[in-house]
Structure formats: C-alpha cells, structure tokens
Design goal:
7 helices, 133 residues, single chain, two-stranded antiparallel ribbon, mainly alpha
Length: 133
C-alpha cells in the first residue's frame, strides 16, 4: 500500500512537470498546422535575455528529475537537450525556428517518464499532443 502511494506521488510530480513542459514548449497550436508554440519560443524572441530566462524552468525540470531518482545517464541526456536548446536559441532567427521543433522540456519529461518506468499512456502530454511517441 505504501509503495503504491509513493508511486502515485511520483506520478503526480511527473504530471506536474509535464504540464510545465507543455506550457513552455506547446502551449498553443498554430492553426492549420501541427506546429505548437510555447513560452520558451516566445521568450526566445528577446535576444540572449529571453533564452536565459527560459533556461530557468528547464533547469527546474532537471533538478526535479534528480530528486525523483533519474539516473546519471538520463540526467546527461536531459542536460544535453537543455544545452542544445539554449545554445542554438542564442542564434538570432535560427534559434527561434529551432525552438518549434526541438521542444527540450517535452523531450525531457518523456525521458523522465521512461526512466521511472511510468505508464506512457497516462500523461499530461498525451492530453495536449496526442499519444506519446
């Protein structure tokens, strides 16, 4: 019973992180396309400062992954996604376009869910973006 409660608490924490990831990476679908736009891409329109500000919630997701027990390998993959997002995001125009497709926060919450062995069908992301891939 206690193990089920702990697992439920972890599931709730991951779902909360997924909700944050959706806000950052896929808050609004662009009409007539499959493209989504999130706060990360909007902040990225402000050179350097916007990309640096969007780094803060990404690092929060990473810190929560560590707290939830993600392995060093998973943390490395997640850190790589954040680093690529930040570095490419610093390049004017190219970084803004890149943000549409890369979606580091969604990638990272998928890595976390996989790492923790949580059910992929029950995700905040599947509600927003269809079944997880």
């Amino acid at each position: 019973m206690k193990e089920t409660a702990v697992r439920s608490s972890i599931e709730n924490d991951v779902e909360r992180l997924e909700g944050l990831a959706v806000k950052l990476d896929a808050l609004v679908r662009i009409p007539g396309t499959r493209l989504t736009l999130g706060l990360d891409a909007l902040l990225g329109l402000v050179p350097v400062i916007g990309d640096t500000l969007s780094l803060i919630p990404s690092l929060y997701v990473l810190s929560q992954a560590r707290r939830l027990g993600a392995s060093n390998h998973a943390m490395g993959r997640m850190g790589f996604n954040i680093g690529i997002d930040y570095l490419v995001g610093l390049v004017p125009l190219v970084g803004d376009i890149f943000d549409f497709g890369w979606q580091a926060n969604i990638r990272n919450t998928r890595i976390l869910r996989e790492e923790l062995g949580l059910d992929k069908e029950k995700t905040a992301l599947s509600d927003q973006r269809g079944p997880s891939k």
